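#struct-queue
[09:14] JT: dropping the first one here, sequence first, then the structure tokens:
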Amino acid sequence: MSSSIHDKDSIRCSFCGRSAEDVQNLIAGHEVYICDRCIHTSMDVLNQHIAPSTKSHKQQLQKTALLKPSQIKSKLDDYVIGQDKAKRILSVAVYNHYKRIASHALPSQDEVEIEKSNILLAGPTGTGKTLLAKTLARILDVPFAVADATTITESGYVGDDVETILVHLLQNADYDVERAERGIIYIDEIDKIARRSDSQSITRDVSGEGVQQALLKLLEGTVAGVPPRGGRKHPEQSLVYVNTKNILFICGGAFDGVEKTIARRINAKTIGFSASLQENVEESHALLSRVEPEDFIKFGFIPELVGRLPVIAPLEPLSDEAMLEVLTKPKNALIKQYQKLFSMEQCGLEFTPDALLAIVEKAKIRKTGARGLRAIVEEIMLPIMFEVPDRKDINHCIIGKEVVESGKEPHFEQKTHGTQEAEQLRKAE
């Protein structure tokens, strides 16, 4: 607050040295003073530094948002194998979404308002739903957060409030609200909050239809109060208000059983529970490409929620060839990751073609898609990675089929005597 000054000659600004009679106000601190002139000067300096960075940040957002659909798909191809149809749908939807945001900043003479198009990914587990959403956020350089629909309950019940979905997004944006409001949120396991029966239950549905109702405003666009430290554990904290109007929501789920609804609708062959089920699995998954919004309503979603997820991208199960490519082709391929780790130990790593096929066969048995590949490779590589850092005598490691199937020791190629001496000389230098 402004100081009451009795001896104007003895009290001076601690920064510029001006006396009290030379300025309008002196703000008193603990044994220090600052005058109004220094405050204005400080504000000018801060504005000069903040304004350019804010401008460049907005320019960067505009630049990344204007990637064409073909460019977005090309970048997705670097990380996600297959799913061409889903990639095309996502690329166009994301392109239109960020064009919509850009249009809001421009003066317009017409009264046309472009509505937000959230996305629904439907497909078996392990087909790349989460990876697609995460890669999109990386391509566009926008904040990204993942939420699990199964942990969300209605307000007042044990679990996460719907608004806490925004907490991780805000944290990943370093609490920059403007940047968070242009981010992407992926809600996984969305099919688990479907209403499984039309009959009324005597118990409260706290994680089904009630959560669907709570999600409506968030998906459409609302100003939500977000507790920055998360949820109900800190009720005393002040809220940060986030507008979800421009946040892109991508929801994903396996939707097991929706194929039967589709089959009945198009009068296709209905799959029963007989032995022929396994023979028709590929046929049942192919039906997902013909899914319609009404099928999700019959599955247990309320019409209002389906209406707020207008873009539907079905995903297909990965073929054996696609699984092999997942292991070796993308920039973040599992085999490439382990080869990089081995190179840090000055050791080469090679998987034989038979070994890769054996890994794919194991993953097919587990029926978890590409997700199962990592678990299998981790199991194979754990004992080898434990041993290799202590082995300075090996130059190359070869993983064969027998290593994958029966856990035998891989083939290690020994370093030659000359190579060992050169290595010792290099370390000595």
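[09:21] JT: and here's the second one, same format:
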Amino acid sequence: MLLGSHVGMSGKEMMLGSVKEALSYGADTFMLYTGAPQNTKRKEIAELNIPAAHALMEEHGMKKFIVHAPYIINLANTVNAETYDLAVMFLKKEIERTAAMGSDTLVLHPGAHVGAGEDAGIASIVKGLNEVLTSDCKVHIALETMAGKGSEIGNRFEQLARIYDGVKWNDKLRICMDTCHLNDAGFDVKNDFEGVLKQFERYFPLNQIACIHLNDSKNDQGAAKDRHENIGYGTIGFDALCGVTRIAEFADTPIILETPYREIGGSADKLAPYKLEIAMLRDGKFDPKIFD
């Protein structure tokens, strides 16, 4: 299995620091944002310290990592033309940054129609992707499965399939499957993840899943709220999530934790839980006192 987590990228070390953080968690993959996910402030590619990061990855046999596009990109917005134009412009740049950093996967939230309706939102997403994807694009855009909060698009596989159907270069598309989002969208991840995959296969082959966000959920199935929980502490539970990591078809698929920071060992501050969670998943046994 390829287990990792979201890591930061900042300071002088930039991407090198991201790799160091991932290694400190015992990870063999990772996911990062090219900058703060809430804004468009980005450093130049030459400042990202990419060669040093690649050298450290090679030293430790780390071959795959994922880039996540910022939340501000909303291709589904037909209500505000400036929001859509910003999304297209910035997504083009994120594709360039992702390729320069050496990843072939850029995770993207499909977007929210903000009241215009599902059909209008999907048509706008298709339009935007057709503006940014080309036949020689080296990066796959992985559309993330969403919880269905507000006017989010992507909480049903049929919606994602409609996007694929409308995009000219849809061989450049992939899927990022988020377990918390699936649960909150109404899929039975806890008791029947095999059934969830069968539903997925009505629209896509499993090889379209480029990465998995492995998160427990604070919410009941179908709540449409999108609130992540630590592995084994939510409504999905450890056994189901551990089982996802053991599926043979996902042996080479990056599995990324985005679980909440929390107090660990009586710490006053909230700390990253990833080292402990990754070790627990590899061991295959739930430890209810892991954070004590």
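[09:30] RK: nice, looked through the second one.
[09:31] RK: The chain is about 35% helix and 15% strand.
[09:31] JT: good to know. The chain has a mean pLDDT of 97.
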